[in-house]
């Protein structure tokens, strides 16, 4: 079993994927589903959603967004362990510099109870 296939450590958030390969497969499936939803033709005969359906979709979107956001630090750690530099991580993270990439990682990383992301950045630097 390669390190990428190994389950996450017990300290990892319960919303984290079991392995890098599991995360990659899930992200590919999500990307495929998004592309399908964006290109599916709308039929004029379909009734619009009721408020309950729209609210349920918004709730699900929030839950998925929160879970995916929790994956970011683990994926950054995987990339760093594989030799990626902070500069190389900047573009995929959508930030302009290696410093911003590291700062984003430090803000998202778990820390002592009651600390903010900014406090974790300051404590590390």
SSE layout and pairings?
Elements: H1 20-39, H2 51-81, H3 86-93, H4 98-108, H5 117-124
Q: If you had to describe this structure to a student in words, what would you say it looks like?
A:
- This protein is mainly α.
- The chain has two domains: 16-35 and 50-84; 85-125, no CATH class.
- 62% of the residues lie in helices and 0% in strands.
- It is built from five helices and no strands.
- It has helices at 20-39, 51-81, 86-93, 98-108, 117-124.
- Mean pLDDT is 83; it is low at 1-12.
Task: Using brief descriptors, characterize the structure shown.
Type III effector protein; 125 residues; 5 helices; mainly alpha; single chain
Q: How many strands appear in the DSSP assignment? A: 0
Helix percentage: 55-70%
The succession of helices and strands, N to C, reads HHHHH
Task: Kindly report the average pLDDT value.
Answer: 83
Radius of gyration: 18 Å
Query: What is the tally of helical segments?
Result: 5
Shape: elongated
Class by helix and strand content?
mainly alpha
Strand content: under 5%
Task: Describe the sheet with the most strands.
Answer: none
Rounded to the nearest angstrom, the distance between the terminal CA atoms is: 35 Å
The poorly predicted ranges are 1-12
Total tally of structural domains: 2
Briefly characterize the structure.
With 125 residues, the protein is mainly alpha-helical.
